[in-house]
Description:
Layout: E1 82-83, E2 107-108, E3 114-115, H1 122-127, E4 132-147, E5 168-179, E6 181-182, E7 187-195, H2 197-202, H3 219-222, E8 225-234, E9 239-247, E10 275-285, E11 289-296, E12 310-323, E13 331-344, E14 354-367, E15 370-381, E16 391-407, E17 410-423, E18 433-446, E19 450-461, E20 484-502
Amino acid sequence: MVLALALTVGFAPPELPPEASTASPTTAPEAAVDADAPAPADSSDAPPAGPEAPAASPDAPAASPDDPTPSEPAAAAQPSAPAPAERVQVAVPAASEPAEAPASSETVDAGASGPALSPASDGAMADAAPPKTWQAELFVDLSYGFSSNWPDNHIYRGMYTSPRLHELAVNAVGAFVRHRVNDSEPWWFELGLHAGAAVDALTSAEPIPGGPDGKYAGAEVFKHIALANAGFRIRKTKTSLGAGVFEGPMGVGSFWTANNWNYTTSWESNVVPYYLAGAKIVQELPGNVEIAGWFVNGFQSYADLNAVPSGLVQLTWARPSREVGPPRTGPSNLTVSTNVYFGPESTDLAPQDWLVYWDTWASWDFDDHFSVAGVWDLGVDRPGRAREQQSLYTGGALFLRGTVFDRDNARIDLAVRPEASWDRDGRFFGVDQWLLSGTFSANLRLWDHLLLRAEYRYDHSTAEDGFFYHAEFTGDDDRPLASNQHTVFMAMTGWWDFWFGRAER
């Protein structure tokens, strides 16, 4: 997702203050982690929550890695690889030092993505006070975007997280409260509310139960619920179960832009679900592997399109965190995850009419100053039908982030993202086309509560009649639309958080 201007609030699941660390981003993007042993992420800087992902969930993988919330203090113990059950987020690692001694017990989040924490030493566990286990966050995300096409409707077509151009836009404001799993309280809870132009854009494609004449249902009722989930962890079997509204585990990048290395998100991130409503079970396996199964309402849908749930299976491997040697600093993490989504996305319930979508991402933190992440997807709608009745999508992106300046209260990161997406039949963007883009971002983080960003982005569409709105041509059916677009964003994100409550000894 902390008074913010781009946030890290629910974006990157925050670590407990005593154990928070400078782990790099990871998510999609907010998974279950072991309180007794390191795990193999709701966004997302990667990812503030963590690609674009490297920041889980959301700053949840060193983007499509997830990363820790910027406001969290660095932990005395180095984090292990990011927890994989949520969307990997590419976010910048927190730079602050711990405000107090390491917590007496490891606290991890099975409900949201984020880096897993290493257990405290035996001495610390014996002497330190129980950690605070509840976190409250506030954030705000503001931006001003300039487009070379100057559309009269001020809309950046196809972009959810920063949909408004040529005006000061309040893309998102929100508040979150979380309880993290710890060794004495093996349960988690997340509740987040948000509003703004990006929230309206995110739910604009939601169906309304009852068809065109339906009212007072669907997104209009639920769109301000950013996260709302609870669950518990069975420590003996290392199994976690939860239900509610979660940050989606697919893709690199978080909906809450403070979690991401770049301000705008990739086209791939705007295809896969930013949120899922349903239930999940996560099981840790030997070899730093986790497998997760989800039963959800739909492919980013609060409303019921049909009475049959869809499914998602996720397999994630995370190499144990390694300390790098001088002159480099910080931990080195590597995480790889693959997700397969399947189920009916219309009133036709036969398997040949299902949507089948395969998402794979990887995130590598070379150290705390350089990270790289990548994602590639393949989706087929109505796979059992004749080719002319099918819809095919494939696309992905490469994320790179490097730190060029790092002092006590200031950090400057530069991020680059080339990407390509092919919506062969217009299933996701409404037009048959390739979308080719390149993005460069400069991010200045101050005092772990303020993020200032400048970003240039170039987009090209191969659609015959163009894709981007320009001047008075502001309808999807207007001709001609623009094939190219240059955009410059100036953005500011602020966040504030505090911890309260303590685990029982």
